[in-house]
Structures
1.
Amino acid sequence: MDTSSKLSNNTGVILVSHGSTLPYAEEVFVEIKEKFIKKTGLATEIGYMKVSEPTIAGAVEILKDEVDDLNKIIALPVFLAPGIHTNIDIPQLLGLEPLEVDPRCPDGNYPAEHYLSIADDVDFDGEIELLSCIGPRDELLDIIDKRINEALAESELDDSAKTGILLVTHGSRLNYNKEFATALYNKFEKTCEVPSSFGFMELCGPSIPESINKLVDENDLERLVVVPIFIAPGMHTTHDIPHILGFLEEHEHEHSHSHGHGDHDHVHDLTPVEFEGEILYPEPIKADDILIDILVSMVEEKL
């Protein structure tokens, strides 16, 4: 796949990520970047919305130093679903117009401490093209199947155990995340031969416990594979969801259940589920080669 031959030497790519206080996400995104560069040969940098470095503006500066006469930047949000971050925050952090009015701050006058207020301005005279998020692509089903098979390979039960599958995403007060999860699950359900469902960690329903209880009660399950539909490990995948699944004792769940992200404040409902069968919990998507192919194809689609 010779993507680099189709692009001007004056083009760079920013892989846009949210940023995390935990090291796992940064490690994953470094691997994603390295695989993307190896596959495409394109000058590429990660740009974090907040918390982590480099920032989006910092990523632009790195590309300017790396690419002679840089005149175009392709910004690729490595997000599964659209939302406030992809439609409002990232465009503004790139110096572009938001794609919709911000429900958090309709007049656009953010508080002085808001991350959009304190972020450095992008200093770039060339073209910046912002791509859409990944969305419910068919290729994600291949990653989900891989994670299910990896989990089942570790099962202590034999192949005859009555098994169910639950896809889990974060959840949002807006419809975007639920629309993504519903569309992806509708595709998955058509390919899945065992009982299945999906649930949200917070902010919208059905919740993980609600979905598990319904799935177990209706199908008398002995084993459940809970697949986290997240790009990288973080607090949600390593603490919140495992706590809901009953993997962590209360004293192991050290961070507060109440917190704010700057764009929403909320309290997690982390009530553990009651299921006496086996629960398998594979890793999220991470830097899977299929994800890299998706990102490369998204860039190619714009050539």
Note: The beta strands are 11-17, 43-48, 72-77, 127-130, 163-169, 196-200, 223-228, 258-260, 265-267, 278-280.
2.
Amino acid sequence: MAQDKDITPLNPAARLSFTEKFRLQTWLMGIIAFAVVLFLLVQAKFILIALAIAIILFSLTSDAINSISRLRIGSFRIANWLASIVAVILIASGLLTLAGLVISQINTVLTTTLAYTDDAQRAIAQMFGWMGEDVEQSVLATVRSIEISSYLRSAAGQAGTILSQVVLIILFVGFLFLERVWFHTKLENLMDDPAQAHRVSHIISSIIRRVNHYLLVKGLISSVTGFLIFLMLSVFNLQFAVAMGLLTFVLNFIPSVGSIIATLIVTLVAYIQVPEPQTAVLIFVLAGMIQFILGNVIDPMLMGRTLRLSAFGIIISLAFWGAVWGIPGMFLAVPFMVAVMIVCSHIPAARPVAVLLSREGLPEEEFPIIGKTVPPPDDQEAERAYHHAVGAE
């Protein structure tokens, strides 16, 4: 008993067990790693954005290339390398054409914006006229204090980087097609375990399939929406119909907020050109109906249960990638979120993240979880889908 009284109590730091210290060190290392990755994402965003877009374009066209290479016309069969070359040429032509169209529309808008500067300032101020003349004059003074020329120069500079970004994307796509034949072999050698490589290949196939379906449906809906906006503005004989249609097409790839921003911009552009509240309200209603029918009715019908993403998670992903990569990051937020949810759903330690990102809290497990010692499933259909996606056949 005397010896017990002589024992001095341990200080709080000494009471930490080895497990708690290790857990604390792990959290600290994770925070440091996240900070380093975030720094690299911001510093190398020009290259990483081009690489991400190139990977998406590559995954979109891989299935089509494998289907074409399996076609036979009598005894003649299109070689895989020939189909790949044609695909790269078509992608390059499409990207260059789209970049040229975007640059030309930006130049058109920039050259005519100065002529509408005074009208735009008065139109914006008149929107607050119902609050009183003092408020309207205050808003007009605030708007006129904004240096429009500096923003126009910045926009012109951004337009100049589009072409260089497109060239980099084309280069990335070309090299991805060169590497596609050996991807499956590299994966098996990297994992050093055929069963584990089989599971990883199924996960990649699931990511590619869902992202491709999302982009194809979104591209179709956005194209129809942009065309209808262009047609509506043309009927009203308003300028910038092509630019507004193209802007609507692009912004519709941003979930939740993109269609709202596009509708407001279209309405504001119309109100500046025709300063009549009745016309602006009519255009706002028509544009809103187009966005609602296509985005809230047709889009969910075509999309089905492909994404199964949480709406709050989508907003968080938009905010994060928008802060890191700007507007391009907002376009890529949903594909990145789909990939993260699928990967986390197959890793036991990361499954809570997949549960939070999923819509119903039940992320779909199409394939075995990584880390479980179970034989790979005999799923020939999924195996063929993966080979078609990466070009292993």
Note: The longest strand covers residues 72-73.
3.
Amino acid sequence: MKTYRFGIIGCGLMGREFGSASARWCHLTGVEFRPEIVAVCDTNPAMTSWFAENFPTLGQVSTDYRELLGNPDVDCVYCAVPHNLHEPIYCDTIRAGKHLLGEKPFGIDRQANDAIMDCIAGHPHVFVRCSSEFPFFPPMQRLGRMIEERAFGQVIEVNAGFLHGSDLNPDKAINWKRMVEYNGAYGCLGDLGMHTCHVPFRAGWWPKNVRAILSNIVRERPDRNGRRVPCATWDNAALLCEAVDPDSGAPFPLTIRTQRIAPGETNTWYLEVKGMRACARWSSTNPRRLERLLYEPGGEQLWERLDMGWETAFPGITGAIFEFGFTDCIQQMWAAFLHELHHGRPASRFAACVTPAEAAYSHRLFTAALRSQEHGSTETVS
């Protein structure tokens, strides 16, 4: 089994999730590769203690990411840092010859993303992908196969979203995701939007134009000292886009919603596809359930409910009747990254991480959405 030695830059929530996924890699069966964490870096030394306590393979702990990038024992890097740091750290990682899985949105704005893309183009031997777990839930894998098999016929409409209620409390303390200088002008789109775009983009449903309505609902929040300070990022976003069905050439509406203030939602991903021959919808509110509507013209239209168990892109020891969860999703995403790195191709069309080109297109879409909000207009995605 091939071992890929990883360094982690940014040891917060998602860094620890990757650590957990790697520690139980034996959960997967039939894979020819495994990750091993050998180095970690965070500017806050307290964030690295969990790794030092739980990973005997760890040989380097640093507060300077450049020290990690200079470590010859590091083959690959996972980077989970605020958006304003993406351009310098991602580019330095690529120039150091380390394969990279970076968090979305791959740059705080389009200019930063352009710089990252130029760096990738200059180092074609380095494998680079963007993080998104959305398609690895079993119902989404099944829905992806329906797309591949052209089961929907001509596409009528697609709706995608990521909703949560984490900012519903106006007295919740501000953090970097609510500060323009760290999160960027995209607001919730930068933080949540790539998840909603992952499957539509992979399906070839590229937005051609967009009419956006962005909402800054809570304009002040307390800082860590309790003082009210400006909160200028967009809390919620609704994008109405025109996409084109690549099979029929016909246009159709694609809606994308990202919300940090969504009453009644904890952390909900959803996708709905409507076509002339079939429809399907999935929501992480009930993560094992795929609903399908299969019909012939003039026939009855009956929704069917399919409750799926542990049916994954990469097999494991869990019995097929048992439930799949978010930690499984993280591990599946990492298996997809390593599979493509190891074999030079993804396991399947929808068992793959976001490509740099897909991340770059999200910047084109989100930049157009900002223009749309400013001018109250429909903007071309260019």
Note: The mean pLDDT is 97.
4.
Amino acid sequence: MSTTPPRSGLRVVGLGEEGPKYPKASLLLRGGARLLDLVVAWVLYVSTGPAGIVIALLYLLFADGMLQGQSVGKKLFGVKVIYLPTGAGARHRDSVLRNAPFGLVIILSMMPELGFKAFLAGAAVIGGIEAFRCWRDPEGVRLGDAWAQTQVIDGKVPHGQPQYVSPRDEARASARLRVPHRDSLD
């Protein structure tokens, strides 16, 4: 078994390295962008007939990966989702991971007989947890962002600028890249 770590195009900023730290994006802009995305999802739901709820769910899950880290709402409000280990705009995978909590709310609405009540309860609980975490975190990272290793930033930040990765994210990234030492396999 090889003891060399796998090659990767990712570069994680280390603890001893200094890198620019993205400021917390405006919660007002983030909220406006989310509201606009919900309106787009609602229009898709209403206009596409029986498949509407699935199309709305897919839009909400994949939206942040559509325009290089910007959904329609984020594009209009000038905020962007970046994948912290690379500093690039969020991909579809990142978008699905970061929006999974909200996708769960839509899935709850599909429950027979409880549909709208389950949707409201899920929106209140999950939305409340996500909003509280986003508000309290110094970088505005909510639960979905932590899962996807993303952060919402001001969309006017120059592309290609070195990115900041918090120690928490670096620990998770380095754990994934760690290859067991040959002696530990005995």
Note: Confidence is low (pLDDT under 50) at residues 7-20, 174-186.
